[in-house]
Amino acid sequence: MKSKLLLSVALTLGASSAFAAHHECGKVTIADMNWSSASLIANIDKFILTNGFGCDAELVPGDTMPTGTSMIEKGQPDIAPELWTNSFNAVLNQGVDEGRLKLAGKSLSDGGEEGFWVPAYMVEEDPELATIEGVIKHVKEFPHPEDNSVSGFYGCPAGWGCQISSANLFRAMKLDEAGFELIDPGSGAGLAGSIAKAYERKAPWFGYYWAPTAVLGKYKMVKVDFGSGVNKDEFINCISVADCLEPTVSMYPPSPVYTITTDKFANKSPEAYDYLGKRSFTNEQMNGLLAWIEENQADGQYAAENFMFEYEDVWSKWVSKDVKNKLMDALDNL
């Protein structure tokens, strides 16, 4: 009888150990991408996985194509917190189909957002300016910064992919016939600077921009409604193609932005994987966080710690009560 009891206990302990081993987080590598929102999310994940789930989390340098390819071919890193999938869609789908990758969830719930924008203070004075028809109707309210005889539209910097789409939409809407001249801002900094300068003077501004960015977090802008809806096929096959001869109007489709993990990590650490599926930001939230990062010249780690201190109401929805308590303890010890 005693031997049977000992055997039963041993089997129970063995099963418990196997379960614990299967659900042990262990060493985890997280891609720290070279732009602010991705670095912020990577550092938040490192803090939460380390202090809430007992992972041995480590950040490793990353970028979209090399990180995704390495995850498929080498199984490393374990996590890509913010992967913009439009430029990686075919390879990503192959990795998922082959059982090498998992889509944990949307890191940006709204997706990457592009469009033509005007300052909110202009729309507050004249709501018509929230539509392309209203902008064209009031074309003379957007004088070119170097030539008052024409109006100015700020396009995307030369050499960027968005230069093609913004120029094609400029043609599709016949903005040149309406009296606009396409302005090359010269660089991303030049484009951002033109918005900042307009805001300082409460001056008119009309042009291309994208989110999430610190600029749209700091300066309230309104995305102009083209009245066309989104035609994804037209956008992919013509608007975003350099030699498209006859583009038609379409709003920019959102760019899906996902958290990607290896299949091995998802199976080894299901609780941690579940957290990644819940961890998501709206563009409005991320715009504000990026503006704070820029104003405080913060790196990813400092920004993540500030987020954990200031946004408990956000991150606490991503984790269990037990994990939340562990994270609060960790914050108390910083």
Automatic annotation (TrEMBL):
UniProt-recorded Gene Ontology molecular function terms: transmembrane transporter activity
Key words, A-Z: Signal
Occurrences of domain ABC-type glycine betaine transport system substrate-binding (ranges): 27-308
Keyword match Signal: yes
CDD domains for the chain: PBP2_HisX_like
Keyword Oxidoreductase: no
GO cellular component annotations of the record: ATP-binding cassette (ABC) transporter complex
Domain of life: Bacteria
SUPFAM superfamilies per the UniProt record, alphabetical: Periplasmic binding protein-like II
Pfam families membership: OpuAC
Residues making up the signal peptide according to the UniProt record: 1-20
Gene3D superfamilies: Dipeptide-binding Protein, Domain 3 (3.10.105.10), Glycine betaine-binding periplasmic protein, domain 2 (3.40.190.100)
Name of this protein: ABC-type glycine betaine transport, periplasmic subunit
Organism of origin: Marinomonas posidonica (strain CECT 7376 / NCIMB 14433 / IVIA-Po-181)
Lineage start: Bacteria, Pseudomonadati, Pseudomonadota, Gammaproteobacteria, Oceanospirillales
